[in-house]
Amino acid sequence: MALNIMIVDDSPVMRVFLRKVVQLTGLPVGEYCEAGDGAAALTRLHERWIDLILTDINMPGMNGEEFVRHLETDEMLRDIPVIVVSTDASRERIHRMFELGARGYISKPFQPEALRDEVERILGAQHA
Amino acid sequence: MPDQDMQHLLATAVHDVLETMFFCEASDRCEPDTGAAQLEARVAFSGAKSGSIHIEISEPSARDLAASFLGESEVSHSQVAQVVCELANMLCGSIVSKIEAQGCFDLGAPELLIHPDEKTAHIAEIQQSFAIERGTLTVALIPCIPA
């Protein structure tokens, strides 16, 4: 089954980069959806089916922490797996994002295999 | 953290970020390139320790890194600027995550410096330059000086 993937990052070049990394992993992708912050992402999530969210933390407007917190309180959205992709590799931040409801965490810099491994761990090997 | 450890930490972050995300190798330390046009960016951080990471990169090198990062042969000036900001962001996160591995910190939004402060070298706690394809990359850790 092809995955519809949402990329949430305020940096347009980072969104392009993440698309390319996803392509390199060989994951079957249906559609990509992009948003520049958590608020825009929440709006789009109510408009289309998304299987997996990749989100940054540090964004203007609604940041990644608030975004994940909102997802957890929304019954329609809370089951969508979220992988955080961030430059922040501190243990406390990683712990906090998992506590809020993130299912995976990748610290930049990272190899494409790291994303593939995280998706496989979360969604199961049939998607990887 | 001892000065030598900080130098090592900074150099490791530069090599990791350039090789993993930009498919680019950096040679060991060199003198900053003062001849070519430079792009500068800064990312502030706050936590147990506060300050900012400044980077300065030769314009041709920045264009090459942007093309490599985006997988495109042609990149716009705007994309080059955004990639330089993203490079600063990744270096800042990588360096500060190691300095404050046990704690939590906040990163500011990356800023491209239009009118760079020429005194950066004088106030930097640590500053190193690296030779990269078609220029140099200089990275400086600027501590926040309490008022």
Keywords:
heterodimer, A: 128 residues, alpha/beta, five-stranded parallel sheet, 42% helix, B: 147 residues, alpha+beta, Chemotaxis protein chec
Return the string of H and E elements of chain B.
Answer: HEEEHHEEHEE
Count of DSSP H/I helices of chain B: 4
Number of strands of chain B: 7
Strand content of chain B: 25-35%
The number of helical elements of chain A comes to: 5
Given helix and strand content, the structural type of chain B is alpha+beta
How far is the N terminus from the C terminus of chain A? 10 Å
- What string gives the helices and strands of chain A in order? EHEHEHEHEH
CATH uppermost class of chain B: Alpha Beta
Which whole number gives the mean pLDDT of chain B? 87
Quaternary class: heterodimer
Q: Into how many domains do the coordinates of chain B divide?
A: 1
Could you estimate the helical fraction of the residues of chain B in percent? 40-55%
What's the story with the biggest beta sheet of chain B? 7 strands, antiparallel
* Biggest sheet statistics of chain A: 5 strands, parallel
**Percentage of β-strand residues of chain A:** 15-25%
Uncertain spans of chain A = none
In one word, what is the shape of chain A? Answer: globular
